Amino acid sequence: EVKNKKTESWQVPVLSIEDNPQFAWRGMHLDVSRHFFSVEFVKTFIDRLALYKLNKLHLHLTDDQGWRIEIKKYPQLTEKGAWRTLNNQDSSCLKKAVTNSDFALPAEFFKEKDGHKVYGGYYTQDDIKDIVAYAAKRFVTIVPEIDMPGHMNAAITSFPDLTCVDAGGWGKLFTIPLCPCEETTYTFITNVLNEVAPLFPGEYIHIGADEVDESSWLKSGACKKLLKEKGWTSSKELHSYFVNRVNKIVNGLGKKTIGWDEIIDGNVDSSITVMYWRGWVSKASAIATSRHHNVIMSPTSHCYFDYEPDDKTLESMYSFNPIPADVAADDKQRIIGLQANIWSEVIPTPARLDYMTMPRMTALAEVGWSGTDNKNWSDYSSRVAQHYSRWDELGINYRLSDIQGLKKHVAFTTTTTLDITVPEGVSEIRYTVDGSEPDANTNSKVYDHPLQIDSSVTIKLLTYGFKGRAGNRYIIDFQKQDYLKPITVNAKVKNGLACKYFEGSYSSVSKISQADLKKETVVDSISYPAFCRESVFALEFNGLIDIPAEGVYTFYLSSDDGSTLQIGDRLVINHDGYHGNIEMDGQVVLAKGLHPFHLKYFDGGGGKSLSLQYEGPGVVKQKIPSTLFKISE
Question: Which sequence positions are flagged as catalytic?
Answer without folding.
Answer: 63, 151, 211
